[in-house]
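Try it yourself: sequence plus adenosine monophosphate, in.
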Amino acid sequence: MSDLEYSVLVDFYEKIEATSSRLTMTDLLVSLFRRTPPEVMDKVVYLTRGTLGPDYEAPELGVAEKLTIRAVAQALGLNVRDVEAAYKKRGDIGLAAEELMEKVKPATILDFFTSAETVSKKRLTVGGVYDLLLKIAKASGPGAQETKISTLVSLLKYAQPKEARYLLRTVTGKLRLGVADMTILDALAVSFIGSRSARSFIERAYNVHPDLGYIAKLVAERGVEGIKEVKIRVGVPVKPMLAERLSDPAEIIEKLGGSCLVEYKYDGERVQAHKRGSEVFLFSRRLENITNHYPDVVEMIRQYVKAEEVILEGEVVALNPDTGEMLPFQDLMHRRRKYEVEEAMEKYPAAVFLFDILYLDGRGLIDDPLPERRRQLEDVVEESERLKLAKSEIVKTPEELIKFFEEAVSEGCEGVMCKSLSNDSIYQMGARGWLWVKFKRDYRYEMTDTVDLVVVGAFYGKGKRAGTYGALLMAAYSPEEDVFKTVCKVGSGFSDDDLAQLPKLLEPYRIGHRHPRVVSRMEADVWFTPFIVLEVIGAEITLSPLHTCALGRVKPEAGLAIRFPRFTGRYRTDKKPEDATTEEEIVEMFKLQRRVSEPVASVSETS
Ligand code: AMP
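Structure, out:
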């Protein structure tokens, strides 16, 4: 098999590092690619990016500097302290090794090989370097450190000083030549199709199969024909579609042609779920394989998605296991830890809200318009408690859009996504376009004071809270009308003791229907005569069409709601329901709230 000498590659690295012009960089890459035998094109591309494969499946390099110091010392027959000193001086293990090698190499190499002739035959090649780097990256378990060091030593023994510089930078994950993926695509277009304008053609293939090494080898070996055959397939994540942003609802509707599909914009983590039979893979927005973070999501996809082969997209959100309420984004991040996933899974179970389908049983759907994709999505997904389609609605007016937005925010979302329903509303891979427009707030308010609210209803608990209440429906008092108007559902902040006591405490007030003095748009599982008063704090007070407190007072058709509410632990037994916080006070609090700047997503609240 033909290969390329590693020294050729590092000569290019040196030149690439020295230029700040993207055009020169492209030219250099073109010369490199033209010299590279097609068989090793993929490896040349991976190494140039400082990786060993596509981000979604390559083992990571990133050997600790300490280990590389030991390897350099061993390879050159030097004292670890001397290598350390050189490293401290240069601040770069690559440069330090290069310098040391220039001084000590002849003796060592002659020691190692029997004759100068053998030395010249033992040149490092791209294929050889790649294989040994892979061995280093994959070494794990007991003895991994020793394997990493001994493999690196054998590489260094064959290396020229300059090669050692780049080898060590690569192995420590610090190559950083600054070559953008798009520059590599430009260079591939020029090298193998003959013009830079062919980039968009190759880029499309790259969006479907975002593995630059694979694409490079394909175009080097088979040119345009090879690229044409790249198809979306299960197991290979596609580059996700991105959204533009606007802050004027009227402009959004106009931009999307007079009407659009508006969906909750959930505040969690985007996942691309691939299913083949009972096998499921999950990829992040950055295309990392995150299957291991969400075993519960994997199980739900297996169970509730009715297709043999399918690629879906959605947002994973952390839930309060006891109440089913959505939690802020930070809580989901507990699932990102390598260990303790099991524990995090119990404390922060996930729900997934699906919003797109890209592939179904042998057919790519990315070129189908959104209404068609949505139909297919509805067909294959059987909704369950924690796997649902993203909540959506078709809207035609700014008022409808704002109403939906307010509902989304009060329920814990960041805002909404507005999506084109036109005939050309395809899934635009890897691109930020006007087919999707996000509408978020660029500020949020901060609720600094507690309120005293009356329990008017309750919802049954789930999980650990089965048999007690999961959340209580809380209301403020309106003295003018002498009624209680709902302002939030509170499920957080209750201790185990509270939970055990609640049904007993509320039992005397339980009635079979909504109390005539309670005004609610929500249907509770259980209703109470207004009596018990609890102290509650939230992240902020927002507009909401779901609650009746101050309905129409600040805005037509919108009430006020407390976002991310939490029981403080204080039972206000000293207060009668008529002493609770009034509707008027909530309106005042809403108006006086301190505005805090972005990001909305950083509301810090845990249950
Ligand atoms: P942003 O990260 O602010 O640019 O917004 C885009 C992100 O919103 C996507 O990458 C998804 O993670 C997330 N998202 C939440 N809900 C939806 C939805 N219904 N449709 C599309 N993206 C959504």
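One thing you can check immediately is this: The radius of gyration is 30 Å.
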